[in-house]
């Protein structure tokens, strides 16, 4: 990964309390896993941003290296990589996602 791409991703992650790198966007998810992430965040009723990796090949490949996670979507809360769709579902079911989100939005 180039230093420029790393800096670009760093900036995106730091500027957004809740950020989802996904296929499509929150209004039009382009895969089931991305849709799962969007539905969970919508259920929580929290503000979040999305980056469509289909629009940017550099980000699509770079985010996998950045997080050391091979799949999309990837969710970041308060600058920390949380995981993909499966992790988000698990955290939501345990009630832990709500806590992470509340802490992020309060900071």
CATH superfamily membership: Glutaredoxin
Number of strands: 4
What is the C-alpha radius of gyration, as a whole number of Å?
Answer: 13 Å
Mean model confidence by pLDDT = 95
How would you sum up the major sheet?
A: 4 strands, mixed
What's the overall geometry? Answer: globular
Low-pLDDT residue intervals, each spanning 5 or more residues:
none
Quaternary state reads single chain
Q: In sequence order, what are the helices and strands, one letter per element?
A: HEHEHEEHH
Distance between the termini: 30 Å
**What's the CATH class, please?**
Alpha Beta
Describe this structure in words.
By secondary structure, the chain is of the alpha+beta class. The chain has 5 helices and 4 strands, in the order αβαβαββαα. Strands 2-1-3-4 form a 4-stranded mixed sheet, sandwiched between helices. Strand 1 (18-22), helix 2 and strand 2 (49-52) form a beta-alpha-beta unit. Helix 2 packs parallel to helix 4. The longest helix has 13 residues, at 3-15.
Task: Please describe the topology of this protein.
Elements: H1 3-15, E1 18-22, H2 32-44, E2 49-52, H3 57-67, E3 74-77, E4 80-83, H4 85-94, H5 96-106
Parallel strand pairs: 1-2
Antiparallel strand pairs: 1-3, 3-4
Helix pairs in contact: 2-4
